[in-house]
Amino acid sequence: MHRFFILVVAGTMASAAAFAHDHVGRLHGAYALTGAAYCIQNSASIGFNPDFSPKGPVASFSNTVQGVMVFNADGTGTVTNRSFSIDPGAGSTGDSSYQITYSIGADGKLSVKAVLGTSNSTILTGPNAGLTQVVGVPDVSGFIGEGARTIILSQPVPTVQTVSRSNGTQFARICNGSLIATRISDDDR
Amino acid sequence: MHRLLILVVAGTTASAAALADDHGRLRGTYAFTGMSLCIRDSASLGFDPNFVAKGRVKLFSYTVDGVMVFHADGTGTLNSRAYSVDAGGGETSDSSYQFTHTIGPDGQLSVKEVPGTFSDTILTGPIAGLTQVVEIAEVSGSVGEGARTLILGQPTPTVQMVTRSDGGQFAQICNQSRFYVRISGHER
Predict the structure, then answer these.
(1) Which residues contact B84 (CB under 8 A, 6 or more apart)?
(2) How far apart are the CA of A28 and the nearest CA of chain B, in angstroms?
(3) ipTM
(4) Domains of chain B
(5) What is the reported pLDDT for A89?
(6) What integer pLDDT is reported at residue B5 of this predicted model?
(7) Which domains does chain A have, with CATH numbers?
(8) Which chain A residue is nearest to residue B129, measuring alpha carbons?
(9) Chain A partners of B64 at a C-beta cutoff of 8 Å?
(10) Average pLDDT over residues B58-71
(11) What is the mean pLDDT of residues A8-29?
(12) For the whole model, what pTM was predicted?
């Protein structure tokens, strides 16, 4: 009976510790992510109206992304990813990274914001290969699955992102997006 | 040793029971996300039986995220936010509807909207404030191990009718891919 009690208590404590560890504002670990987005883009000098309709003709493209998102227990983190973009003209890939802060609301919803000034991206292939660019990263929010094994993120409201390339060109764009992240390690990397 | 064996057997049996319960009578709260690409034209033109558009179509993409609650009695509710992007801009909307769900002998999960329960309000974009009713296509897919995740998609093309509060009526065809992760074993 004594051993049974120890086993039950040990199991309960381990379970409670894992839950608190994962959900109460202390998400941490490395997550592999993948997702897709669809975007419209035009020159930054034209841009979008306040109702998110474009002021001029837009180019549209789809991009997929895969990478790693690291959540530190102190509410900070990093994202590194590779994106693969397709439009009627070409396909191109790029590597990006930025730092994040995150919080978990009382309702369990996860909110993630990019730290301003930390985003950088290099275009690897395609017509603009070799250029670098800085892209405004929109806030995303979502849900944490049981045991924090899986996270779902998306962009809750339209956001006009600015893109500044190393050749001096600037764009404004709107993208939707859907991301899934699966935990690959409990450790912050 | 005997007690340990009992514990192991009891644990294994409990685990098997939970799995059977999850698969035979799926229940719990699932967060989901996914993406669709759609073509749409006016309802008066629509599509032919081969799903070829009879007029010029508008192409748009939308992402969706939300929460789907599966009750053990085969019913459920869905609340979601969609974010649509096309050449005319970006818009978001909030939707909800009730559904029924079944799991076939092959383990495939099927989900159907309960007709007349769909509601949707457009929140941002050029037509913010309008409401619309969209016919929801039947989806099916797989239940992951332990019912921790679900994958659903639309197996066949379906022409969906869209009716807006400003009188606009459209026909659309959308593909879709959705991934669900359980956030609670309880129905909320």
Answers:
(1) A176, B60, B61, B62, B90, B91, B92, B93, B125
(2) 17
(3) 0.80
(4) 2-184 (2.40.160.20)
(5) 86
(6) 42
(7) 2-185 (2.40.160.20)
(8) A51
(9) 154, 178
(10) 96
(11) 50
(12) 0.84
